[in-house]
């Protein structure tokens, strides 16, 4: 996230979001009552929630840069899968 030029206060808030997210990921992974498709769906929902929470902390310029990075990463992953 260095490329986004995030100040220390915002970085601290982002780290808090990530820490809370990590705890939720652990709960989902440890929940033996979930079927694989349910687990996958919950993880996707959690990922979207985390991105929205982080995006809410960014300036419009930082969000635009973050969106560009996400698109590039997605393209790279899709290329690697083919």
Overview of the structural elements:
The chain is mainly alpha-helical and 82 residues long. It has one domain. It is 82% helix and 0% strand. The protein is built from three helices and no strands. α1 runs antiparallel to α2. The longest helix is centred in the first third of the chain and has 23 residues. The two termini are 28 Å apart.
Q: What is the average of the pLDDT values? A: 93
Helix content: over 70%
Please report the distance between the alpha carbons of the first and last residues.
28 Å
Total discrete domains: 1
Uncertain runs: none
Quantity of strands, as a count = 0
Please give a handful of descriptors for the protein shown.
mainly alpha, 82% helix, 82 residues
Blueprint of the fold:
Elements lengths: L7 H23 L5 H22 L2 H22 L1
Helix pairs in contact: 1-2
Gist?
The chain has 82 residues and is mostly helical. It has 3 helices and no strands.
């Amino acid at each position: 996230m260095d490329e986004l030029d995030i100040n220390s206060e915002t970085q601290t808030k982002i780290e808090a979001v990530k820490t809370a997210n990590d705890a939720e990921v652990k709960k989902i992974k440890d929940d033996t009552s979930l079927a694989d498709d349910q687990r996958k769906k919950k993880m996707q929902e959690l990922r979207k929630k985390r991105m929205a929470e982080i995006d809410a902390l960014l300036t419009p310029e930082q969000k635009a840069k973050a969106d560009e990075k996400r698109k590039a990463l997605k393209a790279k992953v899709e290329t690697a899968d083919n």
